[in-house]
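Working notes for the structural subgroup meeting. M.R. asked for a predicted model of this chain before we commit to crystallization trials. I am recording the input and output together here so anyone reviewing the notebook later can reproduce the run.

Input as submitted:
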Amino acid sequence: MDPALFVHFATAAEREQIRVVGSSAVYPFAATIAERFSFQDGSRTPIIESIGTGGGFKVFCSGIGPEHPDIVTASRKITANEVAQCVNRSVKSVYEIVLGFDGVVFALSNKIENFSVTREQLFFALAEMVPIGGKLIKNPYIYWSDIDQKLPRIRIRILGPTPSSGTRDAIVDLVMKPACKEVCKITSLKINCQQIRQDGAYVDVGVNENMIIQKVDLIPGAVGIVSYSFLDQNLDRIHPLMIEGTAPTQETIQDQSYILSRPLYIYAKPDHENFMSELHEFLIEFTLPSVSGSSGYLGRRGLIPLNPQQHDEQHQRVVNKSQVLDLTNFAESSEND
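Returned structure, recorded in token form:
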């Protein structure tokens, strides 16, 4: 027997558990499903690792085989660069599943009175460079009231995720870029819309939302960036900033009137079903009405479900194995754009 094949089969035999990596926002949902799945199925509990969306895709796209993860969870859609990385390492097709919706929340300690901000005000609080007097300068804003006198005189301290996090990507895509575009129109200045300030007003805390909230409790007036599902489980400690006059709720996230709404994704490798026989059944579990539907148990954990028709259609496609993306086509179309 070819020694390489022998090593491959030996490694496959050694791994008896499904392996999932990725988003901290999706982690509590995936962990709950994994526990219930193993209890019902009698199999070993899938391994769930919270390493962030970007870190998850990096590991997921590293190759095919039992030494590589079966599933990546993500708080955003896979990017063109990540598709290219996957295809280059023989990950040429994936299941793409929308688990449901979540919202990015700017949360305050319950000790601090709530206030409302606009998307543009968040941009001025977060951006490294801002236009003042027709010029771009290093962000000078120390207090929220420096941005707008109607805002409270509270020092700007925003505690959030690192650049590898899907939540950080969501902040850039949903706050920084749209607000920056409007500012550029008004000022005719060219701004790096993605660059977040590094003067201490924004602090990278990582993907551990419990740690973020602990620091929000300790630092007076600090704002922590967390997922709606985490907010929903910690209303005794934190409350959300209103953004554009709208608070994050199940209704405003589902209908996307809350501007920081986002879908949560599951990506999996069909090729791994060849040696991980329970993988397809585990994916079906994510899409069951009793799990992620409008009356599913993940709703009690803060997940905002797809509407019933979308949920049912996706469930059927996963059951029929037709919810599969050909990444080679995706990569080719991106190259031609």
